[in-house]
Structures are given as structure tokens and as C-alpha cells.
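Revision sheet: C-alpha cells.
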Amino acid sequence: MEGPYVFAAFCERTLQERDGVHSLIRVVDKVTLHLEHDPPPDTLPAARLAIFATIVPYDYEGEGEIMIQAVAPSGQRAKAFRSPQIKLERGAKGTHAVFDTELQFPEMGTYWFEFSFAGRVLTRLPLIAQRAPKSNSRSTEIQAARLSNQS
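Predicted:
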């Protein structure tokens, strides 16, 4: 089965229960920015999000860090988030990392977040940044995709 493997999600916040189990609150895949005009990129409202990642070793053994690299729609790379050093042992249970962030989106479109361990990209997760119609006054809103079963 090799490995390691990663599970990741964007959410508003996480809870860690007494037994160590994590709950992800309001899992999202879209950020809506409410802007009255075109502000300079350094003054854009930030979206407060938690990025949750679990890495499971399966047959993998080694040390490294979880690194999350955001790639803007234009291909520009932002500063990476890094976990502390993690030691994975073959057959051991997964290790969790929570990154509490304030993300800014200078471009509208799909941002891809690359999740790496020990220099190897394990998965990529999209997060869409979109501009809201000008009639709404809130500054930032995060949303989850709505799935429907169409028969």
C-alpha cells in the first residue's frame, strides 16, 4: 500500500475532543469577497480558515514536515505553511496538523493548495476565490459546494 497518504480540508474551525478525535466545522471550498472597488492587493479582506491535514504512513517510514503551498490562478506561489517535524513509522496511526490561517486572495479564480511531505507532493486541493455582487456589505464569506442528486 506504500504511502504516506494525506487527507485535507478547508473549514471555519476545528475542535479536538477529549479522546483526541477532531471535528471539522463548516467544511468549505469557496471564499466570496465583498469589495466596493478594486483595492490594492495588500488591503484585501482576509478569510479566516483552518486547514486540516492528516497524514497516514501505511508502509512508509521517515521524517519530514507537512508543507502546504498555495498556487494562485496566475501560477504565482505564496509563502508555504509548514508543520513541525514529524516522524512517521510504518503501520502507525495518522498524525494531524491544523493550520489556523488568514488567507488573502489578490486574484479571483481557483487557488490550488499543494500538500507535501518530505518534499513529495501528495495531493492538491482547490479553493475558489470569487467576488460578490456589489450589493452585499459583508467583507468575506466562505461557502461549501452544494451537491444535488439529479435523477
